[in-house]
Specification:
This protein is mainly beta. The chain has 4 helices and 22 strands.
Length: 331
């Protein structure tokens, strides 16, 4: 199997769209996998045009879209009964319209209709919307199955801003990324690992779930760790563990943490608590920062979970998801 080095660094996904469970990509839980800890970029088309904000209206006037009943997170699917799939198409249709415009949209899987009266401007008719039809972000690979080339990452879903609803993905791609910097975390201010896309596509992203995103690589990334046994929730216990992630340089490293507060019945992405105890990681990042989501958690030589969240009040603490929750979500 040809191994290829395909990227360095990692960063968090901060994205938005609509909840729709995708097609699973796995048919089994392997006994062992290749260890992750390296970054990957996610880029895909959202299923519909997502409302992400509203422009300011003139004093004394209402924003046309907001006045029509549209809200952040709504997914626009049609104008005057004809489907639209890109932001450019939506803007053109509204700009060319005459009179009132019928906007069909989805909110929490329910289809609705808004009657919009566009505002007149020197550059045409405007709805007053900030919209998005594509989604892109950076996360961390948790594991790769060397036999099927399937992979899992993030440990949580890619969700709509403000609502927590999962994004419906279409034509997802996994790409290489590179670190550009890091902002250390502090109490009340989450840190973040900054990354950029390299432009190389290494595989597809096919599923977005509450316990991770999943897809298929074209080849095994060169920064993969060795073959590691897959653990289960029964293997997780309070005490020393390790997370594997890329913070500086081009290679993932392992850092010591402590597992506490285990919820053995957890079926979500907050299965146990993690406290960073590694002095080097605390010096570099202040603890867990946005961008470590998906970093594999190792205990007693087994892959038992992945990092998912940081506590805003204390960046040295966060949450992890059971690895068997990830495999169940994947298929």
């Amino acid at each position: 199997m040809n191994r290829r080095k395909w990227g360095t660094g990692l960063a968090v996904l901060v994205l938005a769209a609509l909840c729709l469970l995708p097609t699973p990509v796995l048919a089994r839980t392997p006994d062992s996998v290749l260890l992750g800890g390296m970054p990957f970029g996610v880029r895909f088309m959202a299923e519909g045009i997502v409302v992400v904000g509203f422009s300011e209206a003139k004093q004394g006037e209402l924003n046309p879209a907001y006045a029509a009943g549209l809200r952040q997170g709504d997914v626009i699917t049609a104008v005057d009964g004809e489907s639209v799939s890109t932001a450019e198409e939506l803007s053109r249709r509204i700009g060319e319209s005459r009179g009132l415009v019928e906007i069909t949209y989805r909110r929490k899987d329910r289809e609705r209709v808004a009657i919009l009266c566009p505002a007149e401007s020197e550059r045409g008719r405007k709805a007053g919307l900030f919209i998005r039809d594509t989604v892109a972000g950076i996360g961390t690979v948790t594991w790769v199955d060397g036999e099927t080339m399937t992979f899992g990452g993030l440990g949580h879903g890619i969700c709509r801003d403000g609502t927590g609803d999962l994004i419906a993905i279409s034509d997802g791609a996994a790409e290489g990324v590179s670190i550009t910097g890091v902002t250390r975390g502090a109490p009340g201010v989450p840190g973040e690992l900054q990354g950029i896309f390299t432009g190389e596509v290494f595989g597809s992203v096919e599923a977005n779930t509450d316990c991770g995103v999943f897809g298929v690589f074209r080849e095994i990334p060169g920064d993969c760790g060795g073959d590691v046994p897959v653990g289960s929730r029964e293997d997780v216990h309070p005490g020393r563990a390790y997370i594997r992630c890329t913070v500086v340089g081009g290679e993932p490293e392992e850092y010591e943490v402590c597992i506490t507060d285990i919820n053995a019945r957890s079926r979500d992405n907050r299965s146990f608590s993690i406290v960073v105890t590694d002095p080097e990681l605390l010096e570099r990042t202040g603890g867990i920062v946005q961008g470590m989501s998906g970093s594999p958690v190792l205990q007693d030589g087994r892959l038992v979970g992945a990092v998912t969240h940081v506590l805003v009040g204390d960046p040295a603490e966060g949450y992890g998801v059971f690895i068997d929750n990830m495999f169940e979500a994947a298929g």
